């Protein structure tokens, strides 16, 4: 149970960042990063002094004020000048305070991880312990590039030290190919790109080559699990199927590994999967089933179509591979465009009473108004495609779905989204969203914040930042654990008792907090979307022709 006082969850504990002396890497940082290292007080003093100089300079300059003064009484004129000069400063300070709130949230999450789960996969913040999945320090690795982007030098330095001294992939453990590719390989590659530190590339090569046995199947469709110590791979115990999203969402990372190492084997393995899926029977208007068999390479469980679990990032990676490769791979683009049409034709409906546009599911011709939170990656992906010249109606759809994803949060009593929402479509409904008891949990997932980031970058509409700000405050109110860390919760409909699950997923640091930070940043060059493409775990990888 949560402690009785909810107020504990809003108490902020700002810690000062210390010094970091790895000068080779940090010499490359911009003045902007230096600026971000100053305390809030230091920044406010500098801004205030600059403001005084500016206002003083303008108001005492006869040439500047000459003809204005003729028309305005003195008091109005000086007030107008002062407000005009102050407005951008206010805007800047408000953006800066939101960025600082994200850094503070990260430090709080890190504090729990450091104190109770250091070097382990996941923090259990309520029991002040840890959970192990692969035994590879998953949270620490997933969070590396977030720390770099947020400018958390001290935390980054201690994490780098752990990677250098403690991280070994020479372990007799089974790992999931997809999860370890997007979280571990993806993060090591992006951290290498951001820092230029070869330690991360060496680690990326190591884990990448240890994952390759997964592709030794009759069909060349990879197994879901690999033992990275023994070099053996296998499907889950109960089936010889792999999930379609898993085998088609490892391509950005392995393609990049080939480019960096000059060894084509990684790229060839993952592109073979895409080639086969491109040709397979069993799609409906570009929509794919959820499973694929590793023996014969055919879709299984046909007739079921979703943009949620087990299919989601297939669609995301069609577009992103096309972007990564410099918009030359036509089959990927064709499959993506066809899939978007398939979504519009088969899965898109409006709810009652508010007419929210949502993406449902299809099971053997029967439509279900069920939408996973996972589907909320889609507004961001559609907006990214529109930015890259795909039809303008993709952007319109992105905006509509963004509103829906926000409403899934706003209509809950905690202001936090459930894992799955059901939309009402019958006349006379009084509320758009229903949540089944089993679906009321929130795992600190990133997809809505991710899409808010894309929508804000491309439209500059402040409402997206405001929606994100509300969501961050609700995470602080209902999921923050006073002794450090954030926890997933069981019930987003009960603010009095959200019921913590005692688990902080690695993607909260790897993705959710990173996307919050990028959403609140006004700097379009902070991970420019014309230079980087984010993998499905929010790790930015370079777009090849932008290098
Ligand atoms: C992450 O691991 C990735 O975003 C993945 O694509 C989907 N699931 C989680 C976050 O919800």
Automatic annotation (TrEMBL):
Q: Which GO terms describe its biological process?
A: carbohydrate metabolic process; ERAD pathway
Principal localization? endoplasmic reticulum
Query: Which InterPro entries does the entry link to?
Result: 6hp_glycosidase-like_sf, Glyco_hydro_47, Glycosyl_Hydrolase_47, Seven-hairpin_glycosidases
Disulfide bonds, which pairs? 376-405
Q: What class of enzyme is it?
A: hydrolase
* Co-factor(s): Ca(2+)
Active site residues per record: 179 (proton donor), 312, 419 (proton donor), 447
Question: Keyword annotations for this protein?
Answer: Calcium, Disulfide bond, Endoplasmic reticulum, Glycosidase, Hydrolase, Membrane, Metal-binding, Signal-anchor, Transmembrane, Transmembrane helix
Molecular function (Gene Ontology), one example: calcium ion binding
Source taxon at top rank: Eukaryota
Biological function: Involved in glycoprotein quality control targeting of misfolded glycoproteins for degradation. It primarily trims a single alpha-1,2-linked mannose residue from Man(9)GlcNAc(2) to produce Man(8)GlcNAc(2), but at high enzyme concentrations, as found in the ER quality control compartment (ERQC), it further trims the carbohydrates to Man(5-6)GlcNAc(2).
Protein name per its UniProtKB record: alpha-1,2-Mannosidase
What species is given as this protein's source? Answer: Cyprinus carpio (Common carp)
| GN (gene name) | LOC109081650
């Amino acid at each position: 149970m949560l402690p009785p006082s909810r107020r504990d969850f809003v108490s902020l504990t700002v810690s000062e960042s210390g010094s970091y002396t790895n000068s080779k890497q940090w010499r490359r940082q911009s003045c902007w990063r230096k600026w971000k290292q100053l305390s809030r007080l230091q920044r406010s003093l500098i801004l205030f002094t600059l403001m005084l100089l500016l206002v003083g300079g303008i108001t005492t300059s006869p040439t500047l004020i000459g003809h204005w003064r003729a028309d305005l009484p003195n008091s109005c004129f000086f007030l107008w000048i002062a407000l005009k000069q102050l407005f951008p400063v206010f805007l800047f300070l408000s953006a800066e305070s939101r960025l600082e709130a994200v850094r503070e949230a990260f430090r709080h999450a890190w504090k729990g991880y450091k104190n109770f789960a250091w070097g382990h996969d996941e923090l259990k913040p309520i029991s002040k312990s840890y959970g192990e999945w692969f035994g590879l320090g998953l949270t620490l690795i997933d969070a590396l590039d977030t720390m770099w982007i947020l400018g958390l030098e001290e935390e980054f330095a201690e994490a780098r030290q752990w990677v250098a001294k403690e991280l070994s992939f020479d372990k007799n453990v089974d790992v999931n190919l997809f999860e370890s590719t997007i979280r571990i390989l993806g993060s090591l590659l992006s951290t290498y790109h951001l820092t230029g530190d070869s330690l991360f590339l060496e680690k990326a090569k190591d884990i990448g080559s240890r994952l390759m046995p997964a592709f030794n199947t009759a069909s060349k469709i990879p197994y879901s699990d690999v033992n990275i110590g023994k070099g053996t791979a296998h499907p889950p115990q109960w089936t010889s199927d792999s999930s379609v999203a898993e085998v088609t969402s490892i391509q950005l990372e392995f393609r990049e590994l080939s480019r960096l190492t000059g060894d084509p084997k990684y790229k060839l393995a993952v592109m073979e999967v895409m080639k086969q899926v491109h040709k397979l029977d069993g799609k409906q208007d570009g929509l794919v089933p959820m499973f694929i068999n590793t023996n014969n390479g055919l879709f299984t469980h046909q007739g079921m179509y979703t943009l949620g679990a087990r299919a989601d990032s297939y669609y995301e990676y069609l577009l992103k591979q096309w972007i990564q490769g410099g918009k030359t791979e036509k089959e990927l683009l064709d499959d993506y465009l066809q899939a978007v049409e398939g979504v519009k034709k088969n899965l898109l409906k409006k709810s009652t009473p508010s007419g929210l546009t949502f993406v449902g599911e299809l099971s053997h011709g029967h439509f279900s108004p069920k939408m996973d939170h996972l589907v909320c990656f889609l507004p961001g992906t559609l907006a990214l495609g529109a930015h890259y010249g795909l039809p303008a109606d993709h952007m319109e759809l992105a905006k509509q779905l963004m509103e829906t994803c926000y409403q899934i949060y706003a209509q809950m009593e905690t202001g936090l989204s459930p894992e799955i929402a059901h939309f009402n479509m019958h006349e006379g409904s009084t509320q758009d969203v229903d949540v089944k008891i089993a679906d009321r949990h929130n795992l600190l997932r990133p997809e809505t914040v991710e899409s808010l980031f894309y929508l804000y970058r491309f439209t500059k509409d402040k409402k997206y930042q405001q929606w994100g700000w509300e969501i961050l405050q609700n995470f602080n109110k209902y999921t923050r654990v006073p002794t450090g860390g954030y926890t997933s919760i069981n019930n987003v409909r009960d603010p009095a008792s959200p019921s913590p699950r005692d688990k902080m997923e690695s993607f909260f640091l790897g993705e959710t907090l990173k996307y919050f930070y990028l959403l609140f940043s006004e700097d379009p060059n902070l991970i420019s979307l014309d230079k980087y493409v984010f993998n499905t775990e929010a790790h930015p990888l370079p777009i090849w022709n932008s290098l």
